[in-house]
Amino acid sequence: MAAKIGAGCKVLLGTATPSMESYYNAMKGKYGLVTLTSRYQGIQLPEIQIVDVQDLQKRKMMQGPFSPMLLGSIKKALSAGEQVILFQNRRGFAPMIECRQCGWVPHCTNCDVSLTYHKNIQQLTCHYCGYTYQVPEVCPCCGSTELKGRGYGTEKIEDQVMEIFPEARVARMDLDTTRTRSAYERIISDFSAGRTNLLIGTQMVSKGLDFDKVSVVGILNADSMLNYPDFRAYEHAFMMMAQVSGRAGRKGKQGLVLLQTKSPQLPVIRQVVENDYAGFFNDLLEERRAFRYPPFYHLIYIYMKHRYDQTVNTAAIEMGSMMRQWFGERVLGPDKPSIAKVKQMNIRKIVLKLENGIDMKRVREYLNLAQDRLLKQTCYNSLQVFFDVDPL
C-alpha cells in the first residue's frame, strides 16, 4: 500500500494483516493496493486445526493447558528433529494467586489490578507500576495456607513443558527474558541454530521471525485475546493468531498449527483457520459501522487523573457536561476504565465518537478550552487531563 504524505514522499505499508483503517483506505482508493497471493518460494500455508478445549476439559482429557493432540504433535516434531513454538500471551508463572478457602486475591496497593506471580524470583509483581511484593505464606483474610496460582503464564508453561518433555531444549521469549538486546538476540540465535528446539513466548514470537525447522505451532489460549475489553480485541487477536501461525512450515513441508479455544463456533476462529482476512474485514466492518467506530468515526479518549477519587470524579462530570454542550450525543461517559487506578492515580474516561468529515480544528479548540477551564480552578490544581486521538 502506498500513500502520499508531507512533501510528496512515498510511504510503503507492508503486512499480511493490515489494520481495519489501512485496508478500508485501500478499498476506497485512498491508498494504492498490491496483493501477494502466494508465499515466498511457493511455501504452503500451514494447516490450522481447532482444538475444543471446553469439550476436552469436560472429558478430563486436558493435561494442564495442553490438549492430547498438541502433546502428540510436539512429541512427533521433536522426535523428527523439528522445532515447536508455543504461544501464550501472558508472562509470569500465574496471572494471579487465590486462596482456595475464601477466594482472596492479592492486589497492588498502587493500582487497581491483581498481582502476577513470578516463580523464578518468588515474588508477586504489578505489571502496571512494577512494584513487587513478597508471596504471603497464609491468607490475610482467613489464615488458610491454600494459596494457589490461577491460570498459566509463559513461566509456568515452560516448567510444565520441561517436566513432560525432559529431552526438549526449551527457551522462553517474553519481557522477563529479553530485558537486554543481547538476551533477545541470543534466544533468536540459539533457536535458529537448533541449539534450542522448543520456544515458548508471548506476542514477541509472532513478529516476522523466520525459522527453517518449525513444523508445529501451538496457540494455547485464543480466548484470552478475544475476551479482552477493547473494541479492537478481535482485530488484534486475528492479527496475532495469523502472524504466529505463519511461523509454521517451510519449503517442502506444510506446517501444523493447533489453535486451542473454548469458543470454536466464533466466526473469527474459522476466519483464522481459512486465512480469510477479507471475510474477517467485511464482518467486522459492519459492526464498526453499526456501533460508530473507526474507520467510519474518529475516536477521542479524554483521560483525567487525580490522587483523590472524589476529585477526579467531580472533574470528570464537569468535563462531560462541557463536552455535551458542544458535541451532544457524540459523548460517552464519564466512566471508570477497566483499570481505574494506576500508580496511585484514580482515572476517569470520556469517549468522543466523531463522524468523518467533522472540523477537527474546531474540535481541538473545544478540547483545549475545556481543559483550560478545569485546570484554572484551584480545586483541580493537581488534576491531569490528556487526550488520546484516534487511539491504536
Structure description:
Helix content is 31%, strand content 23%. It has helices at residues 20-27, 53-58, 68-79, 154-164, 181-192, 223-226, 233-245, 267-273, 277-290, 309-327, 360-375, and strands spanning 2-5, 9-12, 47-52, 83-87, 96-99, 116-118, 123-125, 132-134, 147-150, 170-173, 198-201, 214-219, 256-261, 297-306, 331-335, 341-342, 345-355, 384-389. The strands form 5 sheets. It has a 6-stranded parallel β-sheet with strand order 3-13-12-4-11-10, with helices on both faces. Strands 14, 15, 16, 17 and 18 form a 5-stranded antiparallel β-sheet that branches. A hairpin with a 4-residue loop joins strand 6 (116-118) and strand 7. The radius of gyration is 24 Å and the shape is globular. The mean pLDDT is 92.
Summarize the entry for a quick read.
The chain has helices at residues 20-27, 53-58, 68-79, 154-164, 181-192, 223-226, 233-245, 267-273, 277-290, 309-327, 360-375; strands spanning 2-5, 9-12, 47-52, 83-87, 96-99, 116-118, 123-125, 132-134, 147-150, 170-173, 198-201, 214-219, 256-261, 297-306, 331-335, 341-342, 345-355, 384-389. It is α/β, with parallel strands linked by helices. It has a six-stranded parallel beta sheet, sandwiched between helices. Strands 14, 15, 16, 17 and 18 form a five-stranded antiparallel beta sheet that branches.
Q: What is the CA–CA distance across the termini?
A: 19 Å
Query: What is the rounded Rg?
Result: 24 Å
Q: Can you tell me the overall shape?
A: globular
* N-to-C SSE string, H for helix and E for strand: EEHEHHEEEEEEHEHEEHHEHHEHEEEHE
Helix content: 25-40%
**Annotation, overall tally of beta strands:** 18
- Decide which structural class fits the backbone: alpha/beta
| Main sheet summary | 6 strands, parallel
- Summarize model confidence as the mean pLDDT: 92
Q: What is the beta-strand fraction?
A: 15-25%
The total count of helices amounts to 11
Residue windows where pLDDT falls under 50 for at least 5 positions: none
Strand order of the largest sheet: 3-13-12-4-11-10
